[in-house]
Amino acid sequence: MLSALTRLKDRSRLPLLMIWLLVMAGVSSAQADTDWPNKPLNLLVGFSPGGGADTLARLVARELESELGQPVIVRNIAGGGGIVMATSLKFAAADGYTLGMAANSAFDGMPWVAPLRYDTYDFDYLTTISQLQNALVASGNAPFSNWDEMIAYGRQHGLNYGSVSPITREVLNMVAEREGIRIRIIPMRGGMEIMNSLIGGHIDIAWSAGIHQAFLRNGKIRVIASLNDERLRTSPQQPAITELGYPMGYTGYFMFAVPKGMPAQIHERLSAALIRASQSPTVAQLAEQRMGFPNIVMSPEQLTEFIHSAAEDYRRAAADSAP
What we know:
Largest sheet: 5 strands, mixed
Strand order of the largest sheet: 2-1-3-10-4
Strand content: 15-25%
Distance between the termini: 74 Å
C-alpha cells in the first residue's frame, strides 16, 4: 500500500518535472542566443583560393571579425560552381557559427539542372557583396574577336569551352545547338584555372563571372559578349547576349547563406554585421575600383525574394524542357 502511494506521488510530480525541464531548456537556448558569438565562426567559400571571389570573401571576413569580436576562419570548398560548398553548408549546424559564400546560382539554379542533396529552401539568405560581371571570354590571341567571328570559327573548327558549373554548360549547349557549332565541354574548378587555360591556348572560350576584368588591360583576355542582362561596365563596346537574340541574360551576385533554421536573434545580428562588413569602405573600394564588381548589398528580405523568384523561373524552365 505504501509503495502504491509513493508511485502515485511520483506520477503527480511528473508533469511538474517535465514543465521545469522545458522551461530550463528554453532558458538555456535563450542564453545561447544572447551569448552568440562566443567562439570563432567558419566561412565556407565555394571558390578556389586566389581568385576574385576568394579575395572578396577574405576581406569581408576580416571586417566581420571587427563587427563581431570573434575570428572568422575561411575555408575554400571549390567545385561545381558552388555545389560542393552548398552541400557542406546544408549539413552544418544552424547555430550562426557556419555561413557560406557563393554565387546565387548555387542556390537558385543548380537544384533545377542537376540532381543534388539540397534544394533552394534548405537555406536562409543574408546579403550580397557584389554583382557578378558574367561574360563569354576568349584569349587575346584567339583567331576571333567578336560574336560573329566566333560563330563562324566555331562552325568550321568547333570550340573547346571551359565551364565551372552545369548552368553555364546548359547556356552554351543552347547556343551551340542553335548556331550549328560543335562544342566540347572542359570542366574547370575555378576562375584562375579558366584564365590560365585560355591564355595558355588549352581552351577557346569560357564563362567568367568577373575575374577576366583583371586581364583586359594587358590584352591577355577579351570579352566576346556580356552574359548579364545588360552590357558590362568594363566592356561597354561588346553586346549583351540578349542583344544577340538570346533571351537568357543572367545577372547574379556573390552572396552569403546559412543553414535553414538559425535562431531569429542570431539571424538578425549576423545579417546586420554582414551588411555593415560588405558595405565597409575597404570592401566597397576593392570591389568597385580594383576588381570592377558593383558593390550591391541587399537586405535578407530582398535577397530571399530574388533567390526564390529565380528558383521558380528555373523550376518552370526545367518542367517545360522535361520529356
